[in-house]
Amino acid sequence: MARTKDTHGKVAIISGPSGVGKSTICRELVKRLENVYLSVSMTTREKSEEEVDGKDYWFVSEEDFRRRIDEGLFLEYAEVFGSLYGTPADKIEEAREAGKLVLLEIDVQGARQVKAVFADAAMIFILPPSAKILAERLDGRGRDAAEVAAERLMGADAEIAAAWRYYEHMVINDNLAQAVDECVKIIENMRSANRQNNEG
Ligand code: 5GP
Fold first, then answer.
1. How far apart are CA 184 and CA 89, in angstroms?
2. pLDDT one-digit tens code per residue, 39-93
3. What structural domains and CATH numbers belong to the chain?
4. From edge to edge, which strands make up the β-sheet containing 101-105?
5. Which of 54, 56, 75, 82 has the most neighbouring CB atoms within 10 Å?
6. 173 in ligand 1 pocket by Cβ < 6 Å?
């Protein structure tokens, strides 16, 4: 039976607990991978001083976010630590149609929704070397108030437990360069498997 060629870009999901270094890994992946689009999520969370609207996130009101849910504008969305986060669908479709690899930095709930739409998406979960190091990194970035940091740390256990169940790739971020190398390999393997499929 003839196979239909799929020239659309593939999707790679990067998840992991707060403070594990996901954003740094994603920024490195954008430098290392060809033809890649890093999705900018929308959130109702308050913007921190270092963050830039439209670059780190699109920061919107809850009313605006809920209107977009009603209009079906999100590929996925979830409530995380009391705020809403979602992936705008239009940009993802544009990038996939242009054959770009789409990189999504989203939580486990969102990842499962995306996997339901794109069954061949690569799901990568970033683990800290230890709980102690994760706590130190969260303290060190100084972005969150003490209670928020504590809440994020508690959430890490549940998220890691869920990840063992749903993610096919677990990468430990002990050494940044090594973790990035592992992610590059996983994504390149997915892309070449797709290329072979199209050629076969
Ligand atoms: P933060 O507030 O630390 O930037 O993000 C909190 C959590 O929300 C992280 O686990 C992050 O991966 C997740 N997140 C960020 N954007 C999205 C999104 O668009 N959808 C979902 N489901 N989660 C997201």
1. 24
2. 999 999 999 999 999 999 999 999 999 999 999 999 999 999 999 999 999 999 9
3. 11-199 (3.40.50.300)
4. 36-38, 101-105, 11-15, 122-127, 169-172
5. 75
6. no
